[in-house]
Amino acid sequence: MQDQPTLALADDDELHAELMSAWLEHQGYRVLRFASGDELVSWAAQGGSGVQGLLLDVDMPGRDGFQSCREVRAIPSFAEVPTVFVSAATPNNVPDEVVSGACHFIRKDERMFVKLADWLSQHIYSDASHSAIEYR
User: Fold this and answer.
1) pLDDT at 96
2) What average pLDDT values come out for the chain (136 residues) when binned by 10 residues?
3) What pLDDT shows up at residue 88?
4) Can you list the pairs that 123-128 forms with residues at least 24 positions away whose Cβ atoms lie under 8 Å?
5) Which of 12, 50, 76, 91 has its CA 20 to 30 A from that of 43?
6) List of residues 6+ apart from 129 with CB closer than 8 A
7) What pLDDT, on the 0 to 100 scale, is given for residue 91?
Protein backbone atom coordinates (compact mmCIF):
# COMPACT_ATOMS: atom_id res chain seq x y z
CA MET A 1 0.00 0.00 0.00
CA GLN A 2 1.30 3.44 -0.91
CA ASP A 3 1.69 6.25 1.59
CA GLN A 4 -0.80 9.07 1.45
CA PRO A 5 0.43 12.05 -0.55
CA THR A 6 1.06 14.99 1.78
CA LEU A 7 0.10 18.59 1.08
CA ALA A 8 1.03 21.74 2.99
CA LEU A 9 -1.87 24.18 3.33
CA ALA A 10 -1.28 27.78 4.48
CA ASP A 11 -4.46 29.79 5.06
CA ASP A 12 -5.24 32.24 7.85
CA ASP A 13 -9.01 31.73 7.48
CA GLU A 14 -9.72 28.94 9.99
CA LEU A 15 -13.09 28.02 8.47
CA HIS A 16 -11.71 27.79 4.95
CA ALA A 17 -8.64 25.86 6.12
CA GLU A 18 -10.89 23.35 7.90
CA LEU A 19 -13.12 22.98 4.84
CA MET A 20 -10.13 22.50 2.53
CA SER A 21 -8.45 20.04 4.91
CA ALA A 22 -11.60 17.94 5.26
CA TRP A 23 -12.09 17.80 1.48
CA LEU A 24 -8.42 16.97 0.82
CA GLU A 25 -8.37 14.27 3.50
CA HIS A 26 -11.53 12.79 1.96
CA GLN A 27 -9.60 12.66 -1.33
CA GLY A 28 -6.87 10.61 0.36
CA TYR A 29 -4.35 13.30 1.27
CA ARG A 30 -2.54 13.97 4.49
CA VAL A 31 -2.70 17.74 5.17
CA LEU A 32 -0.18 19.80 7.12
CA ARG A 33 -1.93 23.04 8.10
CA PHE A 34 -0.26 26.38 8.71
CA ALA A 35 -2.16 29.47 9.91
CA SER A 36 0.14 31.83 8.01
CA GLY A 37 2.81 32.03 5.37
CA ASP A 38 5.27 32.84 8.16
CA GLU A 39 4.55 29.49 9.84
CA LEU A 40 4.97 27.61 6.55
CA VAL A 41 8.28 29.33 5.73
CA SER A 42 9.59 28.71 9.25
CA TRP A 43 8.66 25.01 9.06
CA ALA A 44 10.25 24.60 5.63
CA ALA A 45 13.42 26.48 6.61
CA GLN A 46 13.83 24.27 9.68
CA GLY A 47 13.99 21.13 7.56
CA GLY A 48 10.33 20.40 6.90
CA SER A 49 9.98 17.96 4.05
CA GLY A 50 7.89 15.23 2.53
CA VAL A 51 5.20 17.31 0.87
CA GLN A 52 4.05 16.67 -2.67
CA GLY A 53 2.22 19.99 -3.05
CA LEU A 54 1.74 23.46 -1.58
CA LEU A 55 -1.67 25.16 -1.33
CA LEU A 56 -1.46 28.81 -0.34
CA ASP A 57 -3.91 31.59 0.36
CA VAL A 58 -2.81 34.94 -1.05
CA ASP A 59 -3.91 37.44 1.62
CA MET A 60 -2.40 36.44 4.95
CA PRO A 61 -0.87 38.46 7.77
CA GLY A 62 2.91 38.69 7.65
CA ARG A 63 4.17 37.13 4.44
CA ASP A 64 1.47 36.89 1.81
CA GLY A 65 1.10 33.72 -0.22
CA PHE A 66 3.26 34.99 -3.07
CA GLN A 67 6.20 35.89 -0.81
CA SER A 68 5.79 32.63 1.09
CA CYS A 69 5.90 30.73 -2.19
CA ARG A 70 9.10 32.47 -3.30
CA GLU A 71 10.84 31.82 0.02
CA VAL A 72 9.78 28.18 0.34
CA ARG A 73 10.62 27.37 -3.28
CA ALA A 74 14.07 28.96 -2.78
CA ILE A 75 14.82 26.04 -0.43
CA PRO A 76 16.33 23.34 -2.70
CA SER A 77 14.11 20.52 -1.40
CA PHE A 78 11.00 22.58 -2.28
CA ALA A 79 12.14 24.08 -5.59
CA GLU A 80 10.07 21.69 -7.72
CA VAL A 81 7.08 21.14 -5.42
CA PRO A 82 3.86 21.90 -7.32
CA THR A 83 2.16 24.99 -5.91
CA VAL A 84 -1.32 26.45 -6.21
CA PHE A 85 -2.75 29.65 -4.78
CA VAL A 86 -6.35 29.19 -3.60
CA SER A 87 -7.73 32.59 -2.75
CA ALA A 88 -10.74 34.88 -2.82
CA ALA A 89 -8.37 37.68 -3.75
CA THR A 90 -7.75 38.58 -7.34
CA PRO A 91 -4.11 39.56 -7.58
CA ASN A 92 -3.61 43.00 -9.13
CA ASN A 93 -0.17 42.05 -10.32
CA VAL A 94 0.09 38.40 -11.23
CA PRO A 95 3.45 37.12 -9.98
CA ASP A 96 5.98 35.76 -12.45
CA GLU A 97 5.56 32.28 -10.93
CA VAL A 98 1.91 32.20 -12.01
CA VAL A 99 2.59 33.70 -15.44
CA SER A 100 5.37 31.17 -16.10
CA GLY A 101 3.18 28.24 -15.05
CA ALA A 102 5.43 27.29 -12.11
CA CYS A 103 2.46 28.02 -9.81
CA HIS A 104 -1.26 28.12 -10.45
CA PHE A 105 -4.16 30.23 -9.17
CA ILE A 106 -7.65 29.05 -8.22
CA ARG A 107 -10.34 31.41 -6.96
CA LYS A 108 -12.35 30.54 -3.85
CA ASP A 109 -15.70 30.32 -5.58
CA GLU A 110 -18.42 27.78 -6.40
CA ARG A 111 -16.09 25.90 -8.79
CA MET A 112 -13.08 25.84 -6.47
CA PHE A 113 -13.19 22.12 -5.68
CA VAL A 114 -13.68 21.13 -9.32
CA LYS A 115 -10.68 23.24 -10.31
CA LEU A 116 -8.63 21.98 -7.39
CA ALA A 117 -9.45 18.36 -8.25
CA ASP A 118 -8.27 19.04 -11.80
CA TRP A 119 -5.05 20.65 -10.54
CA LEU A 120 -4.41 17.73 -8.18
CA SER A 121 -4.93 15.18 -10.96
CA GLN A 122 -2.52 17.03 -13.23
CA HIS A 123 0.20 17.85 -10.71
CA ILE A 124 0.06 15.42 -7.81
CA TYR A 125 -1.43 12.11 -8.87
CA SER A 126 1.20 10.15 -10.72
CA ASP A 127 -0.10 6.61 -10.93
CA ALA A 128 -3.29 4.62 -11.41
CA SER A 129 -3.79 4.08 -7.69
CA HIS A 130 -4.51 7.83 -7.36
CA SER A 131 -6.35 8.40 -10.60
CA ALA A 132 -9.89 8.90 -9.33
CA ILE A 133 -11.03 12.18 -7.81
CA GLU A 134 -14.54 13.02 -6.76
CA TYR A 135 -15.85 16.14 -8.49
CA ARG A 136 -18.42 17.51 -6.06
Assistant:
1) 60
2) 83 95 95 97 93 93 91 92 86 58 81 94 63 40
3) 84
4) 123/53, 123/82, 123/84, 124/5, 124/7, 124/52, 124/53, 124/82, 125/5, 127/2
5) 91
6) 2
7) 61
Residues 87 and 108 sit within 8 Å (Cβ to Cβ): yes
**CA terminus-to-terminus distance, the chain:** 26
**Nearest to residue 130, comparing CAs of 29, 33, 51, 44?**
29
Angle at 56 between CA 53 and CA 60, to 5 degrees: 155
Measured between alpha carbons, how far is 93 from 75 in angstroms, rounded to an integer?
A: 24
Q: Would you state the pLDDT for residue 54?
A: 95
H helix count then E strand count, the chain: 5, 5
* Contact status, residue 6 vs residue 29, Cβ threshold 8 Å: yes
Cβ burial of 89 (10 Å; 0-12, 13-18, 19+) is middle
